[in-house]
């Protein structure tokens, strides 16, 4: 009679591996690939709307660790990772395009209502982040990580209020291009770390509005050197995306609970900054000076709760699917 291995003793429960293997980087069907496209769509929007975190949506869709694995191993297993990332990339392009042409327009009409809608979506999705901490013991170091996570986006947003204002892209030259490589890398980090906002970072650096305003044929014809700025941002973004994804994958593999305590803090802090950033403070200032605010406030409250209910419904659906697999 063959002797049982220690891991095969009666009553033992097979342990789940925390690492996402490359062999699992595939879409089971078109519906799952469409979910990846929707994830990319929100990541694209995150560049436009202050406080929106595409990574939080990835956690909501239970694709976060797979996404990090695909990005972190893109050079190692290009074909498999690229096939997995293709629907996400298409969604990113569509989300950015819609955000740039439509959402930015809506932000001009009723910024508070639009931001409240996205804040509601993020608030309703927050339990998807805290679900990762079920069964984990709250220790002092983990509490410190959570608090630091809350304070980081809040601190970034607070500092952006005292930034020196928008910087001119026309005056960039020499070693300043290296700063755009670094800025691109930091923007990439905001895309894979839940709770960090690329918009808040660019506002802090003073380049959000100049970059948004530079996307026009007339600007390109008058300032062709802006494409050098775009190139530096892309180089930094690519390097930062690969490096940050690989680093986070290692952290989640080795220190998943502490990492998610920090992530939970970042997500909460980011939610707070959606109502406390330079663009929204301009709205509050206008209200204080006598601008009509009641319709915008009422619409914002209603859209916040609608967004929260919608995203929380996705959280509950994900919980049921997860329970069904277990």
UniProtKB/TrEMBL annotation:
- Transmembrane portions of the chain: 38-61, 82-103, 109-128, 140-162, 174-193, 225-245, 257-276, 296-315
Instruction: Provide this UniProt record's keywords sorted from A to Z.
Output: Membrane, Transmembrane, Transmembrane helix
Comp. bias regions, Basic and acidic residues: 1-11
Which InterPro entries does UniProt cross-reference here?
Answer: VCA0040-like
Q: Where is this region: Disordered?
A: 1-21
The record's Pfam families line, in alphabetical order, gives: VCA0040-like
Q: What is this protein called?
A: DUF368 domain-containing protein
* Species annotation: Candidatus Borkfalkia faecipullorum
């Amino acid at each position: 009679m063959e002797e049982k291995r220690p891991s095969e003793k009666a009553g033992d429960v097979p342990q789940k591996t925390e690492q996402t293997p490359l062999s699992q980087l595939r879409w089971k069907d078109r519906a799952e690939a469409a979910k990846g496209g929707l994830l990319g769509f929100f990541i694209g929007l995150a560049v436009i709307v202050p406080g929106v975190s595409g990574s939080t949506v990835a956690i909501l869709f239970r694709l976060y660790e797979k996404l990090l694995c695909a990005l972190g191993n893109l050079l190692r297993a290009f074909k498999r990772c690229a096939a997995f990332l293709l629907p996400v990339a298409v969604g990113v392009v569509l989300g950015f395009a819609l955000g740039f042409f439509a959402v930015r327009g809506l932000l001009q009409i009723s910024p508070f209502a639009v931001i409240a809608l996205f804040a509601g979506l993020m608030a309703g999705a927050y339990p998807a982040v805290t679900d990762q901490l079920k069964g984990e013991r709250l220790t002092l170091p983990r509490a410190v990580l959570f608090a630091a996570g809350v304070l980081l986006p809040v601190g970034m947003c607070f500092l952006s209020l005292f930034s020196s204002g928008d910087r001119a892209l026309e005056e960039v030259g020499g070693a300043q291009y290296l700063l755009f490589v670094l800025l691109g890398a930091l923007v990439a980090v905001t895309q894979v770390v839940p709770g960090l906002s690329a918009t808040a970072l660019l506002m802090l650096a003073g380049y959000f509005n100049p970059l948004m305003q530079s996307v026009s044929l007339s600007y390109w014809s008058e300032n062709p050197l802006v494409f050098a700025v775009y190139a530096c941002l892309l180089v930094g973004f690519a390097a930062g995306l690969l490096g940050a994804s690989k680093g986070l994958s290692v952290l989640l593999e080795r220190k998943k609970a502490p990492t998610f305590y920090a992530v939970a803090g970042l997500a909460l802090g980011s939610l707070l900054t959606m109502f406390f950033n330079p663009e929204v403070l301009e709205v509050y200032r206008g209200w204080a000076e006598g601008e009509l605010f009641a319709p915008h406030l009422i619409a914002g409250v209603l859209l916040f709760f609608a967004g929260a209910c919608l995203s929380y419904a996705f959280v509950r659906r994900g919980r049921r699917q997860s329970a069904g697999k277990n």
